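Exercise 7.
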Amino acid sequence: MTWLVAGAARATIGTRSNQEDAFEIWPSEAQAATSRGDGLLAVVADGMGGHAGGEIAGDLASRTFVSTFTASDGALSERLQHGLEAGNEAIASHVQANGKLRGMGCTLIGAWIDRAGLSWVSVGDSLLLLFRAPEVIRLNADHSLGAYLDDQVRRNQLSAADAQSNPYRNALRSALTGKALELVDLQGEPYKLAAGDWIILASDGIATLDGDEIGDIVYANRDETPEVMAARLIAAVDDKQEPDQDNTTVIVVRIDEDPDAAVAEDQPTRVLRAEPVAPEPAPEPEDNGVATTQRIVQPPVAYSVYRRNRGLIVALGMGLMFLIGWGVRALLG
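Solution. The predicted structure, written as tokens, is:
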């Protein structure tokens, strides 16, 4: 199967004083045509560490991820891992060169989409969502403390009230900070996609909308372009008018079946039964003065009788054999 993928991004600064989110789509025109086959790379990073630090970290990590991934060879999982590690090392080098940026970092999702499906790597709490009507499913792991606490509640190891009141719910258990990565969500084996799917990468500002609201927006705009879909999601966030609205960035990718490829693939490959052809008429005999008739060969009379009465003849034969056998046993008695 051949897929068409198209992506677009939109962002809002929310109520913050600057934009610390960053994103990349490669190829930039979102039309996949690479030496490795059709595909699209999407990256979203959510910076942290102060005004300058967060903005630098997100931009640096996302650009480094793209340049490393696209220049790498080898297995897809290795390329994703190398891109993530390169982004982390770039942050470490930048902090080492400028001590004022110590403590900066970012979350990151890098997603590769091609004919085989969706593969990704992520750290932090930014979201990778799949809309497959009528549901929205989160695919990647949430590395926030809040997600860990909620899991403890599900395991009956913590009360829901304690989980919700924890002042560190928004703290991250994993992020790109230049230090060793403790938690990484790596999906190297492609997740199968289907025509009509929408992939959404988003910073955690999208959490202003709950899952049902996101699902309703995507469903209502499922036949629109990625540009329209992204704009509608960001507009819905802005419409909430949350007093402490975080930066929000979304990349949406639409998965469609290539109609030209579908036509070619639907061509029959099996051998079709030929239409019956009427037999050619027998050639007219030459008029040599001799009268001729068509010769029809009939089966012998005995064979015709046998064919019509085969069941009766077999039954009589078996009965006769039984009588002969009974008579022989009586004589030998």
